[in-house]
């Protein structure tokens, strides 16, 4: 697509820092003269995406809370949202990608305190690995579903990478979280022997349908039912923690097989306040060090999805094969964004919160 003006103006949701709310703002992208000399297009290495849907994640709230006042000096319009699905409307002459104008892509935009995906347009620099995390949409998904999987399925794949789970017994903490749902489906399709998951009673049915043999209500005592499961069918080979918490560590050598693996993406505390995040990271990293030094009878990993983990193509195959499906709680219109954000902050939802940005 060739544009008439050097400046592409659009709307996006953004915040300046933790003390200011997320608001609808005007933003712009600077274009360059097109090769033909007529009109404007994107710089050589870039692609421009017209965003149709963006999905929200708990990390969006965490990043807002971590935007200390001084950061507003560097970028007073920090976009919100990481997941997106949209149409490629311009491709630079030297862009490092096979996608073409008119393709619809699903992606994860990694840069922190930069632009966001709850935005009418997003320009991606294909030379940057944290912006080049996308693939064309899976043929069996709606565009809203296509915006909903990159962060959660990518994280689930990262949590299970390198683990052999055929015939293994696995405890999934946070089985109804979006990451947990993907983890359970991957474990099921990989032939895990027994999956036990923690969730609320309201999520029991869906979590079992996805592949858990049994569920444990995390609102009551977690330890006793986990120990009961060990008595009944033996120790767990892996604990895959998608929600955070330290309930099991007092009895971990009974729960987790010697040489087993405990993978977390949250650490010892769940919550999005700065204080809780710092405690959680500190405790988690202490365990990582203890694990690396051989002080633990099991391997403990605190994992973060990073742009170098090249998952989109494999994830797309898993979706197209039907190995993993995507759950959406609700789709909000662009102008209803604040309702969607409130819902995310409430924690009272089941599946992804999606924002529809463009009518189509
Ligand atoms: N390190 C990383 O790279 C990375 C990447 C992605 C996500 N994360 C983190 O992983 C966590 C999950 O993210 P998500 O997007 O998958 O979550 P999500 O979809 O927002 O999870 C919401 C669900 O979590 C369940 N839940 C809440 N507290 C729980 C608890 N104490 N125990 C078990 N389940 C609980 C609730 O389900 P029910 O009450 O119905 O059971 C709720 O519906 C977040 O903290 C997120 O920040 C980290």
Automatic annotation (TrEMBL):
Species whose genome carries this gene: Spathaspora passalidarum (strain NRRL Y-27907 / 11-Y1)
Domain of life assignment: Eukaryota
Main location, first listed in the record: other
Keywords (A to Z) from UniProt: Lipid droplet
Classification lineage: Eukaryota, Fungi, Dikarya, Ascomycota, Saccharomycotina
Pfam (any one): ADH_N
GO terms of molecular function: oxidoreductase activity
Domain Enoyl reductase (ER): 24-355
Compartment(s) of residence: Lipid droplet
Keyword Ribonucleoprotein: no
An example Gene Ontology CC term for this record: lipid droplet
SMART domains for the chain: PKS_ER
Protein name: Enoyl reductase (ER) domain-containing protein
Family (UniProt): Belongs to the YIM1 family.
